[in-house]
Amino acid sequence: MLTTSFLQLHTAMYEWNKECPQDLKRDLDVFFGSKEFLDRPDVFYKGMEDSSQKWVALISMTGLEETRAMLSRVLEYDFTQLHEARNGTFSKISAAPRMPLAAAYNKFLKDLVRDNKALKRQHKITGWTRELDRATEMIMLGPKNDATTTTTTTATSQREDPTKVKPRLLTPLEYAAAQHGMWFISVDIESFEFDHSKILEIGWSIHDSRLNKMFDKHYAISEYRHLKNGKYVADRRDRFIFGQTIWASLQDAIAVFQEDLTKATKRNPEGVFALIAHDMSSDEGYLRKMGVIFPEKMVKFDTLHLNGARAKDATMTGLGRLLDELDIENYSLHNAGNDAHYTMELFLWLVRNHEAQKVAAAQENLPN
After folding, report:
1. What is the rounded distance in angstroms from the CA atom of residue 277 to the CA atom of residue 284?
2. Residues 6+ apart with CB under 8 A from 262
3. Which positions make up the signal peptide (predicted)?
């Protein structure tokens, strides 16, 4: 275990550069790229900064003092002593590779960038997996959840109590609401391709876990009846296949959506419901700009994220491509009502598939 104290290399070089007289800065840059500076064992390291959870380049405190002495000798300027108190704490520390040339040093820094990107992706996937676990538990606790509609609960839970899943990631309110039955509302917005502030359609689907039924709504906005997509996005406004399209003003359409959000809070005593979208930030952003007020106990699930957890991949996949990839039959996408319906189908597929995988894994681990 390394007990040496460290300072971020970037911090040290920044402080030396800041202190260096202007007429010596070029010589300082030359020194930082020299073999004399770079090719030293037990001086440079790689470590995880505890505060940011990012990989950083480090210099040991003994190497720091040695470098300061070298700088004073080469540049004939007495640099201020740097202290470890200038920096944070680090873990997972390992020695940097040998860097006899500036190219090797540059590769070391590029590798840190690459590792941090991979780490960021992994953190995303970890968070999304937690989101998928929560969504799965909410659906599996539904009163109409049975073998004909969803997979069974995990083998471990079946041994303890075959009728329930023990709460893990849900709050007590969410758990009670899921058991009682709740609304899951998926939403989609279609805007004008040449001016995204002009909303052409709003669609939403309601999955009632108490009844295990789905209801679909599609509103076409009358103010923009004269506007049509077709150059960059398909125009499918008149192809809603899960009910009747209602032409209404934006204000009236939003009022109906707001009313359904209020109804959702009354579906269980806890006032909990879930909003679902494929790219939540986009659709939620549109709705907030249109004046929608989201109830306090609303839970959000993004099927982009849930699929990222399933695929263990942070790549964002569009709704149509993902439906095709998972063999979920779909027609007339880019109609807000249809997209909302298929987003709900995707959501239910993802959580039931996730539960099925957990069941299979638990059964594999059971003793013979």
Report:
1. 8
2. 295
3. none
- Run of H or E including 210: none
Cβ-contact 208, 142 below 8 angstroms: no
Verdict on whether the full-model pTM lies above 0.90? no
Residue 257 has φ and ψ, to the nearest 5°, of: -60, -45
Q: What is the dihedral of CA 286, 292, 297, 298, to 10 degrees?
A: -40
Per-residue burial over 42-69, b if 16 or more Cβ lie within 10 Å, else e, is: ebbbbbbbeeeeebbbbbbeebbeebbe
Domains parsed from the chain with CATH numbers: 6-100 (no CATH), 126-364 (3.30.420.10)
Q: 166 falls in which pLDDT band (50, 70, 90)?
A: low
> In sequence order, what E strands does the chain have?
6-8, 44-49, 54-60, 90-95, 183-192, 195-208, 213-221, 245-248, 273-277, 298-302
In the chain, % of residues over pLDDT 90: 83
pLDDT digits 0-9 by tens, 203-226: 999 999 999 999 999 999 999 999
Q: What's the pLDDT score for residue 1?
A: 41
